[in-house]
Design goal:
single chain; 150 residues; alpha+beta; eight-stranded mixed sheet; 3 helices; 8 strands; globular
């Protein structure tokens, strides 16, 4: 269930992150994507450093509990990714708030993402449609999804 009061969302480029915040954001991603989902992979892919990358997150009690990033791909489309919420902060709509804020940043540009297959219906609520066949990424079924411009 989504909380009625929108959370404060911070948006920053990599160069605007202080070391402690960056560490805590990457720690959140690692805790969920690598440890909780049991997917050992190189979570830090270098794209966080790109000048066009935007990092969005929500903090509770001084720690990041929900995060996503928006990238610009070489074709000019936006890529939304690394959407994550800490286990103890789930069920309050934080991810939805972050996606809506990310789409505000994307504006009228088309955007795409790779959704875990069981979340495709959730992303469809933001205007994304499945744009290709299901595939495995780190042994987790995913589907490519695209949100057209406008």
């Amino acid at each position: 269930m989504e909380d009625l009061t929108p959370p404060e969302i911070t948006v920053a480029r990599f160069d605007e992150l202080d070391a402690r915040t960056a560490y805590r954001l990457w720690q959140l991603r690692e805790c969920v994507f690598v440890v909780e989902q049991d997917c050992p992979y190189a979570e830090l892919d270098g794209r966080d450093l790109e000048p066009s990358a935007r990092h969005l997150w929500v903090e509770q009690d001084g720690r990041p509990v929900a995060y996503l990033r928006v990238l610009e791909d070489s074709d000019g489309e936006a890529r939304v990714g690394r959407v994550v919420t800490a286990a103890d902060a789930r069920g309050h709509g934080l991810g939805a708030h972050l996606v809506r804020r990310a789409l505000d940043l994307v504006g009228d540009r088309p955007s795409h993402l790779h959704a875990q297959a069981h979340l495709a219906h959730w992303y469809a609520g933001f205007g994304y449609v499945v744009s290709g066949p299901e595939f495995l990424e780190d042994d987790i079924p995913h589907v490519p999804m695209r949100r057209p411009s406008g």
